[in-house]
Amino acid sequence: MNFPVLAITLDLDDTLWPFAPIGARIDQVLHDWMLENSPATAAMFPVAAMRELRDRAFVDNPHLHHDLSALRRLALHRALQASGADLALLEPAYEAFFAARNQVEYYPDALQALQRMAAKVPVAALSNGNADLERIGVSHLFAFQLGAREHGAAKPAASIFHAACTRLGIAPAQVLHVGDHVDMDVAGAMSAGLRGCWINRDAAHWNHPSLQPDLQFDTLTGLADWLDANVAATASRSP
To answer: Which residue spans traverse the membrane (predicted)?
Structure first.
């Protein structure tokens, strides 16, 4: 399939890198930090209990679902408060979390493919998560990063896709959104008028009843190859 692509919006977690290993590391790093800095909190909220506290914060605060950083701080505040710890530990605990959150291991194909994509068209990061591309070290490959927290709404809301297109200065029909999630990424983008590319690394079944992805690959290399074959390079990555 060939159609005009003047820019890409790109999901991060589970598209450039798997999130599960990050999540497991975060849990252990936070527990170790609490053991050292607030043993009472570590005793009251071992890894499984802290995870339950985080999940409860998510369930109890649907108005914050676009802001995972606020939800994480809320869970940490509850843990420190319940264990009688000094609430001044909140921000240092969050920083320990955030440092671990931004230690990523790319899928084997991802970084080289991203470099190829960014050399072809402007690429904007569009994520519901709280990864920090500056900390991770790849911000130079992106025109900009737009997160759900900064925008005020999370994918699949059409507004976040439209905001990215507006910032790119490109009509939605000429922007390709790339991600792993059927609904939040591909169907959400296509419903907002963008093109949709599904990165389906696990040979999953496409389960959306009324839409089919414009493109589908099992690696980002497949997309980079498609861009090389179908899209002329643009002059710059400037937004």
So the answer is: none
The CATH superfamily holding the domain 7-17+106-230 is: HAD superfamily/HAD-like (3.40.50.1000)
The CATH architecture of the domain made up of 20-101 is Up-down Bundle (1.20)
The three-state DSSP-derived secondary structure of 38-70 is CHHHHHHCCHHHHHHHHHHHHHHCHHHCCCHHH
- Predicted model pTM: 0.92
Residue 141: count other Cβ atoms within 10 Å of its Cβ. Answer: 17
- Kindly report the number of other CB atoms within 10 A of residue 177's CB atom: 28
What number of CA atoms fall less than 13 Å from residue 2's CA on the CB side? 5
CA-based radius of gyration for the chain: 19
Position 1 pLDDT exceeds 80? no
At residue 232, the pLDDT reads 77
Burial state string for 75-106 with b = 16 or more CB within 10 A and e = fewer than 16: bbbbbbeebebeeebbeebbebbbebbbebeb
Digit-coded pLDDT (tens) for 153-182: 999 999 999 999 999 999 999 999 999 999
